[in-house]
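Hey, I'm writing a tutorial for new members on how sequence and structure tokens pair up, and I'd like a real worked example in the thread rather than a made-up one. If someone can provide the structure for the chain below, I'll link this post from the tutorial.
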Amino acid sequence: MVFIDVHCHVDMCKDKAENIVERARKSGVGIIVNNGTERKRNINTLELASKFKEIKAALGFYPTGAVKLSDSGIDNEIELIRKNKDKISAIGEIGLDLKEEDSNLERQKEVLKKFLGVAEELDVPVIIHSRKAEEECIELLEKLKVKKIIMHCFSGNFKLVERIKDNNWCFSIPANITFSEHFQKLVKR
């Protein structure tokens, strides 16, 4: 069996990419989807994907950073995605994040819709970040009838998991499953 790591940030790790890829190989991980979170990380992701056959590129923009960009800044990121459409396997990490009080949810939704539009145009899946915004994210994705979704590090309740299942979407299991009773219950169900 070959495992797929659907959400990684190899370029953010202290260890060298070569070492990470080698450890992944030895552990049975055949594909590593490296997610971009801003311009520099998107460029790094493309470089890693060209260097290692195991690394697949997902380009996107972290929600809390994206709200700080102007419309032209967002358009530049989308143009980078379009220019590299043959080199990417997904768009991510994108989504909504309500961890901070001044999160500007409406702007985050506006930006997310733009990235979802390009994902539909290119017919690629999206990797969704939804910290403290799981319900808002799912409502928007359902409203827009988005089909190819991986909910990254999902931490919502069981009712939301049911909605994910009903939509035939996927969600990744966070590493903190090892110490979180909540996540262990979600996975068991």
